[in-house]
Amino acid sequence: MKQRIAHVTLLVRDYDEAIAYYTKTLGFKLVEDTPVAEGKRWVLVAPGGKSECGLLLAKAKNAEELGAVGHQAGGRVFLFLHTDDFTRDYRALADRGVCFCEQPRDEPYGRVAVFTDLYGNRWDLLELKKDVPAAINSFRDR
User: Fold this and answer.
1) What is the CATH number assigned to the segment(s) 73-142?
2) Same topology for domains 1-69 and 73-142, yes or no?
């Protein structure tokens, strides 16, 4: 049986606000925006290039969900944006107002910098080295 993770749900305050941020600031593409019920939409965004996994933007519908917006991983990095050119993408994101929490750094597995999105979710912008362990490298170019 062949399986894969297709989407990751990300709680947002507002669909249009989130779409604008992820498409204009992060440069993602809007894959789908389909009304499914009164006030509910199926909104999927994904990075440009070859991408099998996208973000399903889910509008928070109650106080509990609103409280989790931006804190879905307890303050840890939980989204990883891989790139084939760290310097290009770091500069482009910074120029579009992305808030980086640190200066770029070199790690044994690649070049990385943590940034926060519109809601405070922490991401890694990461260019993997060509010789990283197979367990990490196997996810490159999928």
Assistant:
1) 3.10.180.10
2) yes
CA distance 103 to 114: 8
Helices (H) and strands (E) in the chain, counts: 4, 9
0.85 surpassed by pTM: yes
Distance CA 93, CA 74 (A): 24
Among 122, 132, 120, 137, CA closest to 13:
120
Rounded distance between C-alpha atoms, residue 106 and residue 129, angstroms: 10
- Assign domain 1-69 one CATH number from 3.30.499.10, 3.40.50.1820, 3.40.50.1580, 3.10.180.10: 3.10.180.10
Dist. CA 116–CA 26, nearest whole Å: 11
Q: What is the pLDDT of residue 133?
A: 64
- What is the residue-averaged pLDDT of the chain? 91
Q: How far is CA 135 from the centre of its chain?
A: 21
> 3-class SS at 19?
helix
What is the band of 8 on the pLDDT scale with cuts at 50, 70, 90?
A: very high
